[in-house]
Design goal:
The structure is a homodimer of 333-residue chains.
Chain A (H helix, E strand, L loop, with lengths): L1 E5 L7 E5 L5 E4 L7 H6 L1 H16 L6 E2 L15 E4 L3 H11 L13 E4 L11 E2 L7 E2 L2 E7 L8 H6 L1 E8 L2 E2 H10 L11 E2 L3 E2 L8 E2 L2 E2 L2 E6 L2 E4 L11 H8 L10 E3 L23 H12 L12 E7 L10 E6 L2
Parallel strand pairs in A: 5-18, 7-20
Antiparallel strand pairs in A: 1-2, 1-13, 2-3, 3-4, 5-6, 8-11, 9-10, 9-18, 10-12, 14-15, 16-17, 16-19, 19-20
Helix pairs in contact in A: 3-7
């Protein structure tokens, strides 16, 4: 089952169920007006949502044409957004960039940060930055939306709580990262609102692409139409989503509708940009710049500037975008 | 106007309007079923809520007796909880405890951290800790709940966005603070769910106690019935709530229903525990322990343990609790 949230002038939008081919939708309003409402009573409501999807696919409901530009973030605002660091390779590459003195990597426990979740950005809305000079970067990630999880959860509880999967862009202002971290209170100004793909999918609807609590699909990331990366989200993910959820419950329970990010997808390789047709590339600019500094003595890939367009999606073997694309232009307010 | 959220078996509870003497309530359900719903359309809905309060106070509505034990946190889950550090004295005292090497205080810009907001704890529910040995502390704070604020807000916009005021307990696991900060991603495990007083009040309903974007009331904090602190929340607040909101909008807008904490209330003095009748004392145990270490060479006040009861409220000149008390027992799950 695949779901989306459409604009209706209200903060939480309007939940719709999509056809398997993503071409049509039907309103889920009679079952659950919003995605959060569906997540609050998932066991009792999701069968009715699945039935709507089945009737849409069977042609028993005509449905309306689905236009991703009408989609908000699946949860346009959420009660929790926790971003994890599943891919150690990303940490290795960006830590050197940040000039962190603590080079020791946390390979025993995943790092997590608490992100802002009051306004998650629609896939085709602009990335608004207060200033063109803050070293704006994207971070292409897989994210899961979960049901309630108790404090001290087991891996089995964590895995079973994964309701939906999607793609997000953890927008980062690299110039502010060091300030945030040196303040000692963690990320705040360096992490403005995160953007989400238009579509969320249940793990079972993803077939073999969802296994081992990881999404085994390639991302496809372009800046101004140029391919920057196509890493495999299932490869090199040291901490899987069950690990990240378990870690998040060390001292707290997690409410229904909590979104957990897997961290910037990062595969081990020593390519630099531009990437070849079968290259892997990068899911953020900071990593490309780190590799360039090591190889060429200086970073060559610029950070994003107003007017630039970032496109991020996860693609299947046929190259089809599975969750729809995030396609955003950078803009000043 | 004073509002509360009562238990109704649903995650967001049921919004009620209180009489001025806090003795009675009337359901706000016909105006707004939940506090978040009221905040989403505050300009259009708050007059009807005020009218309910006026009719309740005039005796035109009988109302039901208000029992704080039936109250949830005013927002039992929120889209954002940002905790600021308004009182520099608190930072000075606890930084020495944390052994931070960076002694330079941030007196130009307030520190903020992004807290978890998916499950805010009811005023009389237990404080659940996963382990009795994590150096459990309370932090008594003033918090405001705001309307929407744009990126790069002015002080005037920030001040005007303050909708409601209350008291909270930013529960802290001191043993995990250093780990969280050394990880470099900021507070996470050291800051489990925050607890809230049962009542929120509009700034205007607080009369002269709300001025200069600060709450000029004494807190009253007891552990197991012993007075630990009665600091003045209006004194020594270097960054007021408008400052904290402005800082939070440096790179992002803030959604309606965002909760901003003022930081642990902390007055400048060199008393130690036990405090005298007219003493000031402390709004967290960590500060008491810092003063004890300086004075006696070792900390004497223990952190909280299972079975301990913490009571936190803000009191008026007559000693009456203005937002109702947070009164929680520490428990293992």
């Amino acid at each position: 089952m695949k779901l989306a949230t459409l604009r209706n002038g209200r903060p939480d939008g309007h939940l719709v169920v999509l056809s398997a081919d993503l071409a049509h939708y039907v309103s889920a309003g009679r079952v659950a007006p919003t995605l959060q409402a569906a997540l609050d009573d998932w066991e009792s409501l999701s069968p009715a949502l699945s039935e709507l999807a089945a009737r849409l696919d069977a042609g028993a409901i005509a449905g309306q044409p689905f236009d991703p530009a009408q989609a908000l973030a699946p949860l346009p605002r959420a009660y929790q957004w926790i971003d994890g660091a599943g891919y150690l390779n990303h940490l290795e590459r960006v830590r050197s960039l940040k000039g962190s003195k603590d080079a020791e990597l946390q390979s025993a426990r995943p790092l997590l940060y608490q992100g802002g979740s009051d306004s998650l950005v629609a896939p085709t809305d602009p990335i608004l930055v207060p200033d063109a000079d803050l070293a704006l970067d994207f971070e292409a990630e897989i994210a899961v939306i979960i049901g309630p999880v108790p404090m001290g959860a087991t891996r089995a509880q964590a895995s079973a709580a994964i309701r939906l999967v999607t793609v997000c862009n953890d927008v980062s202002l690299r110039r502010l990262v060091l300030d945030d971290l040196q303040n000692g209170f963690g990320f705040f100004h360096a992490k403005p609102a995160t953007s989400f793909a238009p579509i969320v999918a249940t793990p079972v609807s993803l077939g073999p692409a969802w296994r081992d609590d990881r999404l085994h699909l390639q991302l496809r990331i372009e800046v101004n139409g140029t391919l920057i990366g196509q890493p495999d989200a299932g490869a090199d993910m040291h901490f899987d989503f069950a690990d990240l959820i378990v870690e998040a419950t060390r001292t707290r329970s997690l409410g229904a509708g909590t979104i957990i990010g897997g961290g910037t997808v990062s595969n081990r390789h020593d390519e630099s940009l531009p990437i070849k047709r079968d290259g892997i590339g990068f899911a953020c600019i900071a990593e490309a710049r780190t590799v360039e500094k090591l190889k060429y003595g200086r970073a060559r890939t610029p950070f994003l500037k107003p007017g630039d367009v970032v496109r991020i999606g996860a693609v299947d073997a046929a190259g089809k975008s599975v969750f729809g694309d995030i396609a955003q232009r950078v803009a000043l307010p």
